[in-house]
Write a structure and sequence with these properties.
mainly alpha; about 140 residues; single chain
């Protein structure tokens, strides 16, 4: 088989049709690093907004950050909008690092779900025959 599409099984943690596991920490770590960088940047802007730091240096947007930080919407919020952003970026970092390598595998049906069975619905089997074959083998 070609190097681009090799046959892989479930025993090595790589989902069918993939060369590597997209849920592995190695694949998720760049997103976690970028989210943490966003958290640091938002924290810096929040400190500027709370007047802990006197100058807000913005090398990318000139006075754009100052305009946003002092906007009417920003003043209307009970907390600084930059601190909301920092919280969201921190949450994303934690979620990226907390995920497991098995997250890329197809989800199993939950009892009481609309599909009704552990193998998925008949509609999903018609729309994706390869996936249906995988589910039939598991039963």
């Amino acid at each position: 088989m070609s190097g681009a599409h090799r046959a892989v099984g479930r025993d090595n943690g790589v989902p069918s049709g993939h060369i590597s596991n997209p849920s592995a920490l190695r694949a998720r770590s760049p997103v976690a690093v970028l989210a943490f960088a966003g958290c640091l940047s938002s924290t810096y802007l929040a400190l500027c907004q709370y007047h802990v730091l006197t100058t807000g240096r913005d090398p990318f947007f000139g006075t754009g950050s100052r305009t946003v930080l002092t906007s009417a919407l920003s003043r209307a919020l009970p907390v600084s909008d930059a601190s909301i952003g920092a919280t969201a970026y921190l949450f994303e970092t934690v979620v990226e690092l907390a995920g497991g390598g098995a997250a890329a595998h197809p989800p199993r049906a939950v009892a009481g779900s609309p599909s009704g069975s552990a193998g998925g619905s008949a509609a999903s089997e018609r729309s994706c025959p390869r996936r249906a074959k995988t589910y039939r083998r598991r039963r």
